[in-house]
Write a structure and sequence with these properties.
single chain, about 130 residues, alpha+beta, three-stranded antiparallel β-sheet, 5 helices, about 45% helix
Length: about 130
């Protein structure tokens, strides 16, 4: 096995639930954009600027919420990716347990707000806290 494949298998080891969202059409366009933007903002390997280690960034309220969500993702073992493919947005995710995936998906969908607005609160019944 190549080193890259072992890395992928190693990162997926321990995940108990996997899911895929396929977001297509005008009603889900905003949610798809939201997932793509949030994915772009995830911390990346090598993204730290070592020259400015002493500087403490001032975070907006939105950034504070994002940092808190990233901590919960790590705690719940949530891994996810999003991509635009042939006119739709594909979101793949996994978590150690169903509860972690449910909390993560609920937090993402509730933050974007279009599902509640367009389909009502009942559309989120399975994602409630």
């Amino acid at each position: 096995m190549s080193g890259g494949r072992e890395g992928l298998l190693g990162s997926m080891d321990g995940l108990g639930v996997f899911g895929t969202l396929i977001l297509k059409g005008p009603l889900l366009e905003g949610l798809g954009r939201f997932f793509l933007e949030e994915f772009k903002l995830l911390p990346r390997i090598g993204s730290r600027n070592w020259g400015e280690a002493a500087a403490v960034p001032v975070l907006s309220a939105e950034e504070v919420k994002r940092v808190a969500r990233h901590k919960l993702e790590k705690l719940d073992g949530v891994l996810w990716t999003a991509a635009s493919v042939r006119g739709l947005v594909l979101v793949k995710f996994g978590a150690r347990e169903v509860e972690g995936a449910r909390k993560w998906l609920g937090s993402m969908v509730k933050r974007e707000e279009s599902i509640q607005r367009d389909f009502g609160d009942g559309a989120l019944i399975a994602l409630r806290d």
